User: What shape does this take?
Amino acid sequence: MSLALKRPESLHKNVIIGGRSLEMEDVLMVACDAVPVEFSNDAEWNRKIRAGAEFVDRAWREHRSIYGVTTGYGQSGIKAVPPELVSELPKLLIRFHGCGMGEILPEPLAKAVMVVRLNSLAYGNSGVRMDLLDLIRELINHSIIPVIPEEGSVGASGDLTPLSYVAAVLMGERDVFYQGRHRQTSEVFQELDIQPLTLMPKEGLAVMNGTSVMTAIACFAYQRAEYLSRLASRITAMVVEVLRGNKSHYDARIFAYKPHPGQSQIATYIREDLGYHSGDLKALDDHLQDRYSLRCAPHVIGVLADALPWMKEWIETELNSANDNPLVDAEQEDFLHGGNFYGGHIAFAMDGLKNAVANVADLLDRQMAFMMDPKNNRGLPANLSGATEERLCISHGFKAMEIGTAAWTAEALKNTMPASVFSRSTECHNQDKVSMGTIAARDCLRVLELTEQVAGAVLLAATQGLEIRIRNGDLEHHHLTPQIRETLDAIRGECDFIEDDRPLEQTLRRIKSLIAEKAWALYED
Assistant: This one.
């Protein structure tokens, strides 16, 4: 096999797989930044990979009973497969699982799936050959990405159907993305002189029978949620300035008395953005206690901030696991039939993450409503209209966008129904308790997308509100902290002050994309 392609350039060092644990950041660098993957040159790791594959090959030829190698799959595992048919089993497994539906995974996410699966197989407990690992690595490094439908996995027996699209590409079948085009795998392989693999017994099952799709999605969800926790803190500080709120709500002493570390960190972010110091009597203004959407913002965003560390631990444990079945112990010459393909930890983490993120959407939505209402927004025009006095009667400012934030928030909250409790008995009741981890992870991405839309709208509104205050003489630009001024200027670079009503869809789409891409640096840890 050869690839007549130039290896992609990168400012990052290559990501090493084999004999070490990966972090989520490694997966994202490969998937999003084209950082190449290399294998460890550790001799013991290479020996373990070879030993696993050789043991599987020897065991089935010795007529050992091995699930999915010398038997059928699932409930059909009670059926013995005669030696002359063993070699056909992997390709038929892959082909009959070619029934995925729904949207196609975006290319970076599908690439992340390959990285996660490669890392799991590289633990040497799956019985695959180095040739198979080499092909996955080369496809990753040259961005030849399987076209993977997102629907069809119940998250136990792993992500069988979506991962079958990875396995099929290794055989030269189905479709790939290559150089921005959706093409047949066979054509791309022929063009680049890539030899498809004839999968050995156990290899089809090893590629498909794992949690790599849900785990890859979880990696993306985590980093977007972590950024949102920071962005929501910045937006809250801006809204406090817009509404002339009580900055003493973020006094460090309050959070020392209830010392959740994430909550305290969020309060610190907001406090620093506001330039507040403990005991500053000027912070009180005329409002002893603001509404909960301001006063309790650290407590809401803090739930997300405090949940993220244990979620990261769970995701990275799953990332660095052998999670197919059966597992191979070549040293003891044994096959371990178990259930590591069960995605319960990812399911629980994603169900929890979407709940915490949706609560942030709800908080920001309430802040938006606070700014819009002239009965409560402390002297600002209705809907933050920037129109001149004579045109205020026909100007509606952010009225429709506030309706939009309500719609997006409601949909985000609706999607917090936990997927993990909706186990379905499948496959002749062999898979009678399943995780639904992939559905939970996909739901989480949707909640994140909706929350990013809410954040984008509130960010635009807060920017408008600050500028109205400045134009009215209620606030001096130089009195804002450098952090808020920087964000204000960044948004003004994307959207001019809204004086007369105009469509804002494309502006909002741009802001939402910048949020998803983590375009603005927010806080130094």
Notes: The first helix runs from residue 24 to 33. The beta strands are 15-17, 37-39, 101-104, 145-146, 149-151, 175-178, 181-184, 327-329, 334-336.
